[in-house]
Every structure is written in structure tokens, then in C-alpha cells.
Design goal:
Belongs to the bacterial solute-binding protein 5 family. By secondary structure, the chain is of the alpha+beta class. It is built from 13 helices and 20 strands. Helices cover about 25% and strands about 25% of the residues. Strand 5 and strand 6 form a beta hairpin. It is globular and about 70 Å long.
């Protein structure tokens, strides 16, 4: 879809100072840290472009392919030994050799930092099945798993498993400062925290990416409106992640082909980002199953998608989003359309009389300004029934995280960008004594039967029944209440090509896919 916006008076140079073709990207995904051993968040956006992993997910793919590795495979049918052979001649951007010892160092380092308490809640959480890492010669890495795990190749493809230079990243402490050393398509030339990152082509890179530009400057924004304004003024070439629904709709409405107008292109893609609510069962009200079921019976997802997000998101009725093998619609199947009559009966049958008081918490700065409107709509829906009295409270992200980790919130909102495109990643992280929510959720059938069974099967289509059963358990418990599934949007100058290929299945921009049409 081609759109047009009135061009600003400033002209955006299509070239760097040395005549090279450089792309400027605007995003709201500023890194929280430059050390991949610490981050399990939007920092991955930068990591994907400057670090390398053994495997990666190519554009449009859901199966990982070799990147730093020349080949990887399970050794035997048990799915407990995974062997990778590195490409020859790999080097980090500083010229240091990248060998099997560097790979082992990267994984052992994550474990050490977590064990020593230097890192809490870091990406080591993805490596629950890993026992140890061994090397054979300079190019062979052997991963020995405690138990079968068919998702392990997908884990290796995440930016959390970035390979770092042992000379630059100490085994027992985090790297400090604003420097970064990787072996990915780009090298980090300069970095200003929360402001911008300048990436230049890494001449030492050997991997799967076909780099179509000479460098990328990433500018970090705090507001969608400011990012769109920068695009209109031609200060940036591309916007990604963080676009408010209103800005997307506004862009869709601005079309024209006037000679003095700067045309832009809107790229829309399927997404697997989800939003959901978490119920704290230690709360005297949220801990009651009938209260949670009555709550679920009243939530009007289509109204949230339409009123708040202008249909730039879709209603979601299970924790596993559409597009992934194993997706189900359990909450719609069991609850149907919102019904005050059904909700009232659920409470009455449990002997609960009178409005139920609940406090709903959300973060003010993690998911965009629409979050406040979303929770206001939830409050309206629930209180319109006469069955709930809702109090809304909010905190900035860092404080918000601390609060739910301490069990302070009866009900709170969270979002999830998948680590990898598999139904396992929308179930496993949320259950068990230790989960990403720090809200213990005991479900022995899921953790002791379903997850171990499905992880023994490399044919993911063969475990649909397991995933559907797991989702039904989540529906029955109503500990997690899915609300909506997002889409992916890129708005770019019309002279920029490759936007449709720049998004990987985990909604991370592969910036090497971007190029200027004028440079063809």
C-alpha cells in the first residue's frame, strides 16, 4: 500500500559522509543493556544486527538455519545431544578469532553470571534443558541436554544466545561502557544511550545474512508521534516498533500523488505479539476461581481491538496466537460472547453477592500510550455489569516489574514478544514454580507431562493435541487471560525497499534487508 505525506523542508541525505548508502531507522525499542548475558527484552533488536548466533531464522521462516554454524543437528534419536560445526575463518568485528572456545565461553558465562546473582531473570531462563557445553577441536561445539528438547535449535536462534568475544566479555562480570563487540552483519561504531546507535558494515562477517546496505543509524524515540514526525520531516527513512494505532490509521488516511509530496509505503505483516492479564491467586479476590471466570465472561475483546486499537490488533482467545501450530480458541469456545447474565450466575453459584473489588495494574511506559485507554475500557466493561468495582493503578516499567515480582498486584497486564515461533514459547514460560512472571503457577500436567512429551518430538505438527490440552488447562484455571494479538507495521520512505523482508517471526527487524531503490 503506498501512501504519501507532505515533505518537510529538511532534506534527508541518502548517503553517509563517505558516499556510502546508509539507512536511518526510528524505533522505540531502546536497549536496556549492551551485554546480551543480561537482556531478555527489546535489547534483542540491536543484538540481532550486531551479534551472531549459531542458528538464525531467515526472513519468513519458522525453522532455524545455520548462521555462525556451518551445520547443526541432533546426534541420535534421543534429542539430548546437539552438535554444531562452525564456519571456517569466523572473526569478531575487532578481528579476534571466533572459535568453539568462544561459543562455550558465551554459554558458560551466562550460567556463571546467573549463579552468582550478577544477573537476575536473564536469558539463562531459556536454557533450562542445557546440562553442559563441550568443544571438540576449534570448530565443533557439543550441547548436552538434561532431557530431550526439540525446541533447542529454536532457542539457539534467539539473540539471547549471541556469541561474545572472551577478550571483551569477562566470565564473571558484565561488560561496562558503551562498547560492543560481535560478529554479526554490522559493527557498532557509536552509541548514545536512549538516543542512537550507529552501525557500520562488519567486514569480518561470515554468515547467512545478505547485507543490502552499507550501514544503519538507529534513532530511539520515546513517543510514536515524535517518530512519525521525524519521518514526515525526512529525518529518518523507516519507523518500526512502537507505532500507536492512531498513527497507523493516520498514515493510512494520508494518500496522494502530488509532485511536492514525499511518498511513503506502509508494510503490514502478521504478528505474534500478545497482550494478556495475569491473576495473582494469593489475592483474596483474584484467588477465587469463580471471580476469575466471571471476569473472563465479561471481557469484550472486539471492543478493545476496535475502540482502543482501531482494529490494528485482533482479539485473541488463547495464549498461543494465530499462525502458530497448535493455536486454539478455548476462551471463545468456553465463554462465547460477553454475557452479564452468565457472569452473574457464575458468582451467584459460588455464593458471591455484591460487586467484587479488584485493582488492575498496568505499566505506563512499556507498551505505549494506548495501554491506559485499554485498561480504562476494561474498567468500563466490568463495572457496566454491576458485578465488579475496579480500581486502576499504574507504574513505570522498572517499578511495575518490582511490584508484580513481590506479589503486590491482584491483576496486572503484560505483553509477550516470543523468543521463537513455537507454541511451546507461549506456554512454558508462564507455568511452574519459577516463571517469567515471578507468579508461581503449579500445573503438574503441563510441566511434568505435556511439555516433556512435546519436546521429545521434532515434528511440531505431531504435538498439536498436547498444545491444545495445555491451552485448555489455562482456560480452565483462568490464571492468564489473553486479550489481543498484534500486527507488525513498518512505515518507510517509498525509496526504501525490503521492509516486507526485514521482520523476523519474533518481530525483530533484520536491518540488513533494507536498501534504497536509488542504489539498485
Amino acid at each position: 500500500m503506498s501512501l504519501s505525506l507532505v515533505a518537510g523542508c529538511g532534506a534527508l541525505s541518502s548517503e553517509g559522509s563517505d558516499g556510502e548508502q546508509v539507512i536511518t531507522v526510528g524505533t522505540m525499542s531502546a536497549p536496556s543493556t549492551l551485554d546480551p548475558a543480561k537482556a531478555w527484552d527489546s535489547s534483542w533488536e540491536l543484538y540481532r544486527n550486531v551479534f551472531q548466533t549459531l542458528l538464525s531464522l531467515p526472513s519468513g521462516a519458522t525453522e532455524p538455519e545455520p548462521d555462525a554454524a556451518e551445520s547443526c543437528a541432533f546426534d541420535g534419536a534421543s534429542n539430548t545431544v546437539y552438535v554444531c560445526e562452525l564456519r571456517e575463518g569466523l572473526k569478531f568485528s575487532d578481528g579476534h578469532e571466533l572459535d568453539a572456545a568462544a561459543v562455550k565461553h558465551s554459554f558458560d558465562r551466562m550460567r556463571t553470571l546467573e549463579a552468582k546473582g550478577v544477573v537476575k531473570g536473564g536469558p539463562m531462563g531459556l536454557l533450562g534443558s542445557l546440562d553442559k557445553v563441550e568443544t571438540k577441536g576449534e570448530r565443533t561445539v557439543v550441547f548436552r541436554l538434561r532431557k530431550p528438547d526439540a525446541t533447542f535449535p529454536l532457542v539457539l536462534s534467539t539473540p539471547a544466545m549471541s556469541i561474545v568475544d572472551p577478550r571483551e566479555y569477562p566470565a564473571d562480570k558484565l561488560r561496562t561502557g558503551n562498547g560492543l563487540t560481535g560478529s554479526g552483519p554490522y559493527a557498532l561504531k557509536a552509541y548514545e544511550p536512549r538516543e542512537k546507535a550507529e552501525l557500520v558494515k562488519n567486514d569480518h562477517y561470515k554468515g547467512a545474512a545478505d547485507v543490502k546496505n552499507d550501514g544503519v543509524t538507529i534513532r530511539y524515540f520515546k513517543k510514536s508521534s515524535a517518530m512519525v514526525d521525524a519521518l514526515e520531516k525526512q529525518e529518518i527513512d523507516v519507523t518500526f516498533r512502537g507505532l500507536d494505532a492512531g498513527d497507523v490509521i493516520d498514515a493510512q488516511s494520508k494518500s496522494g500523488d502530488g509532485a511536492d509530496e514525499q511518498k511513503i509505503a506502509l508494510v503490514e505483516g502478521a504478528g505474534t505479539e500478545i497482550r494478556y492479564l495475569v491473576f495473582n491467586t494469593r489475592d483474596p479476590w483474584a484467588g477465587k476461581l469463580p471471580v476469575r471466570r466471571a471476569f473472563a465472561q465479561l471481557v469484550d475483546r472486539p471492543a478493545i481491538a476496535h475502540k482502543v486499537y482501531k482494529d490494528t490488533v485482533d482479539p485473541l482467545y488463547s495464549m498461543v496466537p494465530r499462525g502458530l501450530t497448535g493455536h486454539a480458541t478455548g476462551f471463545f469456545d468456553d465463554y462465547g460472547d460477553p454475557s452479564v447474565t452468565k457472569a452473574r450466575k457464575i458468582l451467584a453459584d459460588a455464593g458471591i453477592d455484591g460487586p467484587v473489588p479488584l485493582t488492575l495494574w498496568y505499566t505506563t511506559d512499556r507498551y505505549g500510550s494506548a495501554t491506559a485507554l485499554e485498561f480504562a475500557e476494561l474498567k468500563r466493561q466490568l463495572e457496566a455489569s454491576g458485578l465488579f468495582e475496579i480500581t486502576l493503578k499504574s507504574r513505570p516499567w522498572n517499578e511495575f516489574q518490582e511490584g508484580y515480582s513481590k506479589g503486590e498486584y491482584p491483576v496486572f497486564g503484560r505483553g509477550w514478544f516470543p523468543d521463537f515461533p513455537d507454541a511451546d514459547n507461549f506456554i512454558a514460560p508462564f507455568v511452574g514454580a519459577k516463571n517469567v512472571l515471578n507468579t508461581p503457577y503449579a500445573s503438574k500436567e503441563i510441566t511434568e507431562e505435556i511439555l516433556p512429551r512435546e519436546r521429545r518430538e521434532t515434528d511440531r505438527g505431531a504435538v498439536v493435541d498436547d498444545f491444545e490440552r495445555a491451552q485448555q488447562i489455562l482456560v480452565d484455571d483462568v490464571r492468564l487471560l489473553p486479550l489481543w494479538q498484534g500486527k507488525q507495521y513498518i512505515v518507510a520512505s517509498e525509496e526504501i525497499a525490503g521492509g516486507e523482508r526485514a521482520l523476523d517471526p519474533s518481530a525483530i527487524m533484520m536491518m540488513w534487508e533494507l536498501q534504497r531503490k536509488t542504489s539498485w
